[in-house]
Amino acid sequence: MAKTKYYFNTQTLKYEKVRLSLGIKVLKALGFISTALVFSFIIIAFAYTFFDSPKEKQLKREINQLSLQYEILQDRLKQLNAVVDDLQERDDNIYRVIFEAEPIPKEVRNAGFGGINRYKNLENYDYANLMIEATKKVDILSKQLYVQSKSYDELAKAVNSKEKMMASIPAVQPVDSRKLRGAISGFGYRIHPIYKIRKMHEGMDFTAPIGTPIYATGDGYIAAVGNERGYGNRVIISHGYGYSTKYAHMSRFKAKKGQRVKRGDIIGYVGNTGASTGPHLHYEVYKGGKPINPINFFFNDLTPSEYMAMLEVASRENQSFD
């Protein structure tokens, strides 16, 4: 209940009620409303500045989730690009060399997309730059994969016309995977087990028990059988087409010089002869007289998962066995 206000009338010497005019009442009401609005505005502004509404919280969670997904997408694109780069490298420098085909020019592999702006429909969205950048990467990757698939189609035709050549090229492991003891030292710079220095290792080492059969990795003829300094008992096979393979540290031979062999024929047995620190086979592949990484030639008897596992182990810069 509103309080009644009085004032002392000096004329009548009595207390009389204060009677406000309509205008003053209106002004007071407006003042009260204005003050309430100002305080309300301040409170709302403070709340919006320092506290998130439920909708804002939801939107922030969605933005964080989208940012995370975008980072994951970028990482996957990097991984895919690395895989494609590896495929292109092998295609140009191994497979096309094997089949004597010209490498695909870089301008063909990396050709852009000409003509109209392909990403105009994305320009009016929020975060348009991120969307356009990601889409461009996917488009470029798709183009590179298309070019690579056409290249493999071309190589497949070359394979069908070069059966003899394919039979001669080293294409299997020289030791049965089931006989391996797990330790593999790959091609590249490794720590020499005797001299303890970083030295180029021009082949691959396969650890296996003494007496484990060693197989010819391609058709050819036995070019050399005997003992060689450092290699111990070794066999060299000439496969033709510029390829040859060397098998070292054997315990004994089965093949003879001049003998014709087929892929999979036993040519000797694992040993520990020469500069060797344990029973193993040291295996080398040569093209045009230059050593190349043997791991690129195990495509006939390894599944993709087995090949990736061997590639990971062989790439470690560990100590070699010879």
UniProtKB/TrEMBL annotation:
Domain of life: Bacteria
Spans through the membrane: 29-51
Pfam families: Peptidase_M23
SUPFAM superfamilies for the chain: Duplicated hybrid motif
Domain spans labelled M23ase beta-sheet core: 199-294
Gene3D superfamilies: Glucose Permease (Domain IIA)
CDD domains listed in its UniProt record: M23_peptidase
Keywords on record: Coiled coil, Membrane, Transmembrane, Transmembrane helix
Coiled-coil intervals: 56-90
Any one GO molecular function term: metalloendopeptidase activity
Protein name (database record): Peptidoglycan DD-metalloendopeptidase family protein
Species of provenance: Pedobacter aquae
